[in-house]
Specification:
Blueprint lengths: L8 H8 L4 E2 H7 L5 H13 L3 E6 L6 E6 L1 H5 L1 H18 L8
């Protein structure tokens, strides 16, 4: 759980499961995360070997893309199972369950 725990890591991995994304693409797809949090989580996921960061170009504007590593890809079935479970709960309950109760 150290590798994928917390509020945002699994969300970021979910958004990278279908292919590489640039930072701004992730920001648009996850609008409720702050820039600082997204940046920190991306660095942590890279440090832990779940994503890779590839820089294209030597001078600005450089292009940076993030993608899943083999370790990150091995987590995709877990992400899909969690997504399926969440969708089932929403369907059965008719609403999202809030963290407050």
């Amino acid at each position: 759980m150290d590798l994928v725990g917390g509020k945002w890591k699994a969300v970021i991995l979910y958004h990278l499961k279908d292919g590489m994304k640039r930072y701004n693409e992730l920001r648009k797809e996850i609008p409720s995360v702050t820039e600082m949090t997204l940046s920190l989580q991306l660095k942590q996921l890279e440090k832990d070997g779940l994503i890779s960061r590839k820089v294209y170009g030597k001078k600005p504007p450089i292009k940076v893309v993030y993608s899943l590593t083999n370790l990150g890809n091995s987590f995709v079935p877990v992400l899909e199972a969690i997504t399926e479970w969440g969708n089932k709960v929403v369907t059965e309950k008719g609403e999202f369950i809030s963290a407050e109760g």
